[in-house]
Amino acid sequence: MRKNNIEPLIFIGFMGTGKTTLGKYISQNNHLSYIDLDEHIATCENRTIPQIFESVGEEGFRKLEFKYLQTCLKQYDIISTGGGIIEGESAFQYLKSQQNVIWLDCDLNIIFNRIRNDKNRPNANNKTFMELKNLYLSRVSRYNEIAFIKVNSNESLPILENKIMEEVVCE
């Protein structure tokens, strides 16, 4: 449950950029509530993300994602979204109206090595580097359009936390 009056921190960015790792880190260091949106969806739906994609398709998943995003924004201080959240128009428009949308980005080679052959990532599983790069490039402008700030997640967790908290507090 939300513990403070600041607007929630919402981490967006391509899969494998460290949204979950950083979200948990900042949450623990600052005693803030945290949720990973994809994990929450899987738990609530009692299915894995790939199972949801298989049964309702990507469009059906994006509808669920938007539904749970709205609920989580009212309940948690920090939310890590899935990399494709900007693919659903409802979620994209909703995120545009939020204050603290933080875009995590990092080198594509690092991302590729982190996520290749990850069966829990239906849009990355068995993709070549070029296929992943094309997906990444198709999303960059949408991340940029809704981000309050962009941070390079190649940095250490303490440095990232400091940069983000300075921006949010100075706001």
Number of separate strands: 5
Principal-axes geometry comes out as: globular
Report how far apart the termini are.
23 Å
What letter string, H or E per element, gives the SSE order?
A: EHEHHEHEHHEH
- List unreliable stretches of 5+ residues: none
- Share of residues in helices: 55-70%
Output mean pLDDT: 90
**Beta-strand percentage range:** 5-15%
The radius of gyration computed from the alpha-carbon positions, rounded to a whole number of angstroms, is: 15 Å
Instruction: Please list the strands of the largest sheet in the order they lie side by side.
Output: 2-3-1-4-5
Tally of alpha and pi helices: 7
Q: Would you tell me the structural class of the helices and strands?
A: alpha/beta
The largest β sheet comes out as:
5 strands, parallel
Provide a descriptive summary of the structure in words:
The chain is of the alpha/beta class and 171 residues long. Helix content is 56%, strand content 12%. It has 7 helices and 5 strands, in the order E-H-E-H-H-E-H-E-H-H-E-H. It has helices spanning 19-30, 37-45, 49-75, 89-96, 108-115, 129-146, 157-170; strands spanning 9-12, 34-36, 78-80, 100-105, 149-152. Strands 2-3-1-4-5 form a 5-stranded parallel beta sheet, sandwiched between helices. The two termini are 23 Å apart. The model has no long low-confidence stretch (mean pLDDT 90).
Summary, kept brief:
The chain has helices at 19-30, 37-45, 49-75, 89-96, 108-115, 129-146, 157-170; strands spanning 9-12, 34-36, 78-80, 100-105, 149-152. It has 171 residues and is of the alpha/beta class. Strands 2-3-1-4-5 form a 5-stranded parallel beta sheet, sandwiched between helices.
